[in-house]
Each structure stands twice: as structure tokens, then as C-alpha cells.
Amino acid sequence: MGMVGGGPGAMIGPIHRIAARLDGEIELVCGVFSRNPAQSQETAESLCLPAERSYQSYTSMMTAEAALPDGERMDFVVIVTPNDSHFAIAAEALKHGFHVLSDKPATRSLHEAEQLAEQLQKTGLLYGLTHTYAGYPMIKQARSLVASGALGEVRKVLVEYPQGWLAQSGVEAESKQAAWRLDPAQAGISSCVGDIGSHAAQLSEYVCGEPIAAICADLNAVVEGREMDDDATVLLRFENGARGVLIASQICAGEENNLRLRVYGDKGGLDWQQHEPNTLCLKWADRPAQILRAGGPGLSPLALANSRTPAGHPEGYLEAFANHYRNFAGQVRARLEGRDATEVERDVPGIADALRGMRFIEATVAASQSTQKWHHLQAIAALENK
Question: The organism sits in which domain of life (predicted)?
Fold first, then answer.
């Protein structure tokens, strides 16, 4: 793979690199890691890349890599820059025939995401989106349980993602990560919903197998002087009629990344928290509660395929991230081998998630600014159920 972004001071770039090499199936062969050529070269040297594979711009990287012979050029590019450059980099990669794996959100606007979808359709190339939390084994188990009908008809969905790292004023002056997330020019029209609310929305759709169809939203800039939202509460209506509540906040002092998902059907419910990711709690209407554990008995083939260690050994954030990389690598390998990707290899968020994610972000901002109660989300007919 080649990488764009992830240079000095980056948080998510190094995590991507760890996840990519965890299974020994992907090699980082080239990159441009910063807009600053000296810093980009410094990062490349620290990663032991040859000087000729360290580029000064993503455009020069795409051109040079495309000119290399098969088996030597990169097979795909991973994008780990701020949101404002995601679309341009992805478009350039597709133009030169490279598959794309991108950090979320996919683009800065729904319009850009729609353009990206059109380019993917024309080129037939692969696209993945690293919604990390969908990579956890017990989230795979939750998805399988809902799909099997074990919970019955889904009625209620509660998803919350409280953080506290932006609870104080002035943090953006001290943190590169906070600065760009609170800058509309780089982040887009939303900070909180764009950064973590989109994760919560994607997770609820992934587990339930149903798209969000309508919303009622309340977004706020709680910390004085901020231009963008740092707190959000969204009422949800899913395509199948289920109701839900999504809470995303960056100003819950003392919270870390306390992501939690609860799904209730007419036969039972499930409860998963990222702070205890190896555990899935099931509650039944007609029998005692049940606890399932990662690597333990009774798990679905999808959950087992995304588990690495024996029961009782923690599988966390990095492993969940790595599941997306391993599965996406499987898709690329399937293309090279001229075969269809397996069900597990296809289990990576893609362009449908990208479109729904950007649709959700823009709709919540518009809904919060409106006096209208319910806002129906624009249909994505060709991709809605993929």
C-alpha cells in the first residue's frame, strides 16, 4: 500500500500503519506523509522507505507508482489526511487505477461523495472506509444475531458516543487534532457529528441491517466561541420503522471513547460497550440473560473469522482496525487472482457507507437549524441496502 498523510503529530496515521501490518499481509511501500516535504521525508526515513518511494505530493506519487511494473507498484492507497483533501486524493488514485482505503468521513460533503461514487462505478475499482468499530468481533456477532431474527423485530436502538477531550475552551490552540476538527475549512460543516456521530450512525446501521430513514436533530456548540458543534442529540427512525436515539458529544468531561450500542427487538435485546469490547450482553423476554465472549462458543462464522486470539485474551481497537485492513487486502488479492471475494473479505464498510455517512452529517446539521421536526434522508436507491 501507499499512504497519504500520517506524518509528524498525526494521531490516526500511525494507527493505520499498525493495523495494516498486524497480519503480515500488507507492506507499506511508498507515501507522502505531510504537506511539508522535509517532514514527509523524515517520516519516510523513519519507516525505512527508499528515498525514491517518498514523494512530495500525492499527484506525483500516483503518477510515479502507475508507471512502475506490475508487482512493484502499490496496489492501493490509504488516505489519512484531514477531511478536506479526502476526495481529491481518492479521485487522483482512481484516475491512475489504484484501489482506495480511506479514513472517515469519506469526503467533506455529500456532493463530493456522490462524485466519488460515480468515479468508482466507472472505474470498477475497490473502495473501503475505516469505520473502526464495525471491525470488532462482538459487533460482528451482534450483526449476525439481528440478521438471524434472534431478537425478533427490531423496535428500539440506542447508540451513544461521549468523549470529553474538547470539554475545555482553548484546547484547539494546543492540539493539532482538535484544531482541524474544529475548523470548517478542513473538517466540513460538522465537528462532533462528522467525527464521532458518523461512527455511531454507521454502527447502528451495520448491526441492524437497516438504513436510517429520518431524523430530528439538536446540535450545539457548547463551549463558547466555537463555530462548530461539539455536542449532538439525534432522534432516529429506521427504514423498518424502528425508533432510536443517537447521542454524540465531545464535551462530556472525564469521558474517553465510551461508545455503547443497545438494540431491542420484540424477543430480546443486546448491549455492547467499547470499554468491554470482548463482551456482548443479551437479554431475553422469556429466559435468563446471557453473556457471549469473543473467541468463545456459540459465535457466528463472521464473528469467528474476525477473531484472532483464544477466549479470554483481549481483542481491542487495533485488532478491530486490522480486521478492515485484512479483509480489504483479501478483496485486492481476489482481484489479482481473478476470483470473487469471500463474504468475510467483502465485510468492509464501502461507498454505500460513505454516501449514507455524508448524508447523515449534512441532514443533522440542516435539521438542527430548522424548525421542522422530522427530516427524511435522501434516498440512495442503488446502494441503500448494500
Answer: Bacteria
Shared domain check, 143 and 91: no
pLDDT tens-digit readout, 140-197: 999 999 999 999 999 999 999 999 999 999 998 888 888 989 988 999 999 999 999 9
- Per the CB < 8 A criterion, the answer to whether 282 and 270 are in contact is yes
Strands (E), the chain: 2-5, 30-32, 76-80, 99-102, 127-129, 154-162, 212-220, 231-238, 243-249, 260-265, 268-273, 279-284, 290-293, 375-376
On whether the CB atoms of residues 359 and 331 are closer than 8 A, the answer is no
The angle subtended at Cα 11 by Cα 10 and Cα 14, nearest 5°, is: 85
Cell of 166: 474538547
CA distance linking residue 236 with residue 242, whole number of Å: 8
Do both 111 and 233 map to the same domain? Answer: no
Domain of 62? Answer: 2-129
pTM > 0.85? yes
On the CB side of 75, CA atoms within 13 Å amount to: 16
Residue 106 and residue 163 share a domain: no
Rounded to whole angstroms, the Cα distance separating 107 from 262 reads: 28
Q: Are residues 82 and 55 in the same domain?
A: yes
Q: Distance between alpha carbon 245 and the CA centroid of its chain, in Å? A: 20
Q: Give one DSSP letter per residue of 39-88, joined into a string.
A: HHHHHHHHTT--GGGB-SSHHHHHHHHHTSPTTTS-SEEEEES-GGGHHH
